[in-house]
Specification:
Blueprint lengths: L20 H12 L5 E4 L10 H7 L4 E7 L6 E7 L6 H8 L5 E2 L2 H8 L19 E6 H5 L2 E4 L6 E6 H12 L4 E3 L5
Parallel strand pairs: 3-5, 5-8
Antiparallel strand pairs: 1-7, 2-3, 2-4, 6-7
């Protein structure tokens, strides 16, 4: 496995210089909501394994974010779960009464969350004003003090206190999470 390059500097402010507008919108919203964060920049992280060094530097466990849909592509879900837990479709389907869950096509991810594959993040919910995506959170995620996520692009990672995601960010976006319990074995 090739190691990705990581800038080991931990920043607590938004980046200066040229960045995508959707990434800068995340920092602007976090500032508006008075949500502190730590940030590191890195090469593209294509998998959860690429995030292990990022986790170590930030002192967190990166949250695995999966964008899912039903077979008819009429219901869309963002699932937040611990990065080291295995995802079992049947286990989740039973809890949310939705059969045949699968990974949603990239065009819906872009349409509803303004993110691309590899950059899925709870931060994308800020772009879902019509609430087309239902948020599902594994109970183990909310037991952690911090959430690790991307700012809608997978070349930076954020460390944010979980309470700020639950108490400030989600109320602002209007998304009410459904809590699920995934065993992942």
């Amino acid at each position: 496995m090739t190691k990705i390059h990581i800038d080991p500097t931990i920043y607590t402010t938004k980046p200066s210089g040229s960045r995508l507008s959707k990434e800068m919108a995340v920092y602007d919203l976090l500032e508006k909501l008075d949500i502190p964060y730590s940030r590191i920049d890195h090469d593209v992280t294509a998998s959860i394994e690429d995030c292990y060094d990022v986790e170590r530097l930030l002192g967190i466990t990166i949250c695995k974010n999966l964008f899912l849909c039903n077979s008819q592509k009429t219901q869309f879900y963002l699932l937040m779960m611990p990065g080291d837990k295995k995802f079992k479709t049947k286990e989740l389907s039973n809890q949310i009464q939705s059969s045949r869950l699968s990974f949603a096509p990239a065009e819906y991810m872009e349409k509803y969350l303004d993110i691309t594959p590899g950059s899925v993040s709870v931060m994308g919910l800020m772009n879902d004003a019509e609430h087309n995506v239902k948020l599902l959170i594994d109970e183990d995620v909310i037991r952690e003090e911090y959430v690790g996520c991307h700012p809608c692009i997978n070349t930076s990672s954020l460390k944010i206190e979980t309470k700020y995601i639950i108490d400030k960010f989600l109320p602002y976006t209007g998304h009410v999470p459904t809590y699920v319990k995934l065993i992942g074995e």
